[in-house]
Amino acid sequence: MIYTDNVHLMDTALFKGLTCSAEMRDVYNERAHLQSWIDAEAALAKAQAELGIIPEEAAEAIVAKADANLIDVQNIVEHGKKTAHTLMGLLTEYRKNLPEEYQNYLHNGATTQDIIDSGTMLLAARAHDVIEKQLVAFLKTVMELMRKHRDTVMVARSHGNHALPFTFGLKMAGWLDEMGRNLERWREIKDRCLVGSMSGAIGTYAAWKEKGLLVQERSCHYMGLKTPKTWWHSQRDRLAELCYNLSLIGGTCSRIAQEVYVSSMTEIGELAEGYTKGIVGSSTMPHKINPIVSEWVFSLSRIVRGNADVMGELMAPLNERDGCSWRAEWVVLPEIFCAASAMLAHIHKVVSNLQVNEKRMLDNVNRLKGVLLSEKVMFVLAKGMSLADAHHLVYEISLEALAQDRPLVELLMENEHVAAICSREELETALDPNNYLGQSGAVVDLMYEEISTLIKE
Catalytic: which of 107, 197, 219, 282? Predict the structure, then answer.
């Protein structure tokens, strides 16, 4: 193997497939970055030709050579070493490919940040599409799993302890509801956030005189981006909004991965990641099978949420623009989108191959020998005493049942106040978890229909 000088984990042979999806790598690789700047220049040329600012032949020549493969990247690097300028090297190489009489029409009136910001948004628009497709794929998988386990009874836990019975379908309905809102938000911000930039040095459009606003509008049209109302060289809220929406998605993914991670613990054993022969959990403990994919979700989610906060710190450039914050975006944005895409790929893998141990779920429902249904018993007893008295009585009897490791129904029937109000048969009915699932199934059915509609939009 020939080792490279790659530094970031996303670019190493060992980890790049785990930390960035192939689709997002196509969006943010080095060639794609240069191509986005070139595409912005080509869009500007087409807009100016349309408006009679430059000759149509010049625009045609610029568009014909709008290909990053025609650019000598090493020459751009050497130019940057001399000039310390980000874009001038590309413009120099681009002009070499144009007939001499058209070279002056390239980058006519634009500023560097117009081109780079437009390129940033072109890449973000493609990245947005990748994330949206991943969200839809996740929802499709989970909604079918939810319907399959609509009536699979399990323990609901609050504060880490047994609370009441509900269904695994209802738990997943919560996953779907939250991730569905993420998809709605992600779609909703598209038109607001994904805008081009072509306003000149400080947003006056002065180089294009009375046609300046039209230059921007037509340039954005050719780039497939929305047109901003004002120049946004110092307005970075759109990029922050994209990042904070990725942060919300990361929070949801982390919560779901945590559910799987905790539920796969030996003592619980209700869920497990899919296993294929050959997976190894430990280099020294041969028996270990670990929730590695869920752990990747945790790790990547932290990177996503952390980078969103960094982007939030970059929202205050000085005056009309400066590079102090701007250059940091060039690191943050590719990293957050790549990490988010890998995170979504991992969580989709988790739910696609999820192992559901229904027997273990039922065993855990019955582990407390009826105490799990204390609330239902309280309501049964409340027909013959106040609710407060019923609560106190069931509380005392439940603690005794747990201490003695005996079925709750036995201790209930030994109590004269309970025996005077209801029969053993009535209590046993109340202690059947299947009789205290409330509207779990109805919520699952409703969520299935809502998500079905959402993913078709």
Answer: 282
